[in-house]
Design a protein that fits this description.
heterodimer; A: 142 residues; mainly alpha; Cytochrome Bc1 Complex, Chain D, domain 2; 7 helices; B: 216 residues; alpha+beta; Glutaredoxin; five-stranded mixed beta sheet; 5 helices; globular
């Protein structure tokens, strides 16, 4: 009986700690969640048809987004690719792709959101991409 | 308790029997006409269903493909173009599941009509097929004339239109299931994986249909 009471108290304490932990999410985390979930909605509407729900791409026609090395190495250029489109040959996971990705009319904050989503989904874990950073990156578009 | 288990067993058995005896048949879609004939003094009324009319196209291998090449086949048709940035990639991602399920089945084909024949020439279609990872003669990508394709689409109950002012083609993403008598037996939203699973089930049902003999 004692044991049961102890475990009940333990459970209540644990719940309390969880509630406190969750409600005390740092501002940074809240900001990340905001970017990430907005980005998910943009991805679904604008990217998913071609790149797939799991970033898997389509055979040799459309490149996948789950090559963590590619996303990491090209991170500063990704905003340019999405905004201005992309043309020509690329190699992802030693597979060759050539074709054309159309340009988009996404605003910097939307680019930041969708990049926060992509670079933290499909195996990528690169943290938040903020609007200011995107604006900075866009200045370097080739 | 024994009675209870017995009752459950009877219910389960009855349901199992009912399920096994219940053959699903696919509907016949499109326009219907009642045709009355008099043969040997007897008057009979038959229902005549809409069928896919004759057509002539070229596939990704440069072979001429007419409706005759589909005689005795069950097939799935869709309308696409290789440079389509919107719904085509997701349609063909889903169509690949249909292809992989039936690519070794004789008497089954997939036909993708290009609605942009000016761009989608034989070499362009072949390159697309290679990149999509399809080979052999199960899935044909067809180039024809724009007019013929737009007229033919209506017979498949599909709507395709000319480029809009923004330079985009507006077209339906339907997959259409056609039986051996060239009648329409199902339409499926090709962008929805659940609908495409339903198509795969329906192809199995149609293949098993006892009346599936060629009528001329």
């Amino acid at each position: 009986m004692k044991l049961r009471a102890a475990s009940a108290i333990g459970f209540i304490l644990l719940s309390l700690v969880t509630v406190i932990f969750v409600s005390c999410q740092s501002d940074a985390e809240v900001e990340f969640q905001r970017y990430y979930s907005n980005g998910g909605a943009i991805y679904q509407a604008r990217c998913q048809n071609c790149h797939g729900a799991h970033g898997e791409g389509l055979q040799a026609l459309i490149p996948p987004l789950n090559d963590t090395t590619y996303i990491k190495t090209n991170k500063p250029a990704l905003a340019c690719y999405i905004k201005n489109g992309m043309k020509g040959k690329i190699v992802i996971l030693s597979r060759h792709f050539e074709g054309e990705m159309p340009a988009s009319d996404l605003a910097p904050v939307e680019l930041a959101s969708v990049l926060s989503y992509i670079s933290n989904s499909f195996g990528n874990k690169l943290g938040i991409v903020k609007s200011e950073q995107v604006e900075e990156n866009l200045k370097g578009c080739k | 308790m024994k009675n209870f288990i017995g009752a459950i067993a009877i219910i389960l058995l009855w349901n199992a029997c009912k399920f096994n005896g219940d053959h699903k048949t696919l509907p016949i879609l499109g326009k219907k006409q009642a045709v009355t004939k008099t043969v040997d003094g007897k008057t009979t009324t038959d229902t005549v269903y809409q069928t896919i009319p004759a057509f002539k196209y070229i596939n990704q291998y440069g072979d001429s493909i007419t409706d005759k090449r589909l005689d005795g086949n069950i097939y799935v048709a869709d309308f696409f173009f290789t440079t389509c940035p919107s719904i085509c990639p997701v349609m063909h991602r889903n169509m690949l599941n249909v292809y992989n399920a039936f690519k070794d089945t004789t008497g089954f084909k997939i036909i993708s009509y290009s609605i942009d024949p000016q761009h989608d020439s034989v070499p362009v279609l072949k390159k697309y097929a290679d990149k999509l990872g399809i080979a052999g003669n199960t899935w044909w990508l067809l180039q024809g004339t724009k007019n013929e394709t737009y007229q033919l689409a209506k017979n498949y109950l599909v709507s395709v239109q000319e480029k809009n002012p923004a330079g985009e083609y507006i077209h339906d993403g339907y997959f259409i299931l056609i039986d051996k008598q060239k009648r329409i037996r199902g339409t499926y939203e090709g962008t929805d994986p659940k609908e495409v699973n339903r198509l795969i089930d329906d192809i199995k049902t149609l293949k098993a249909e006892p009346g599936e003999t060629k009528v001329q």
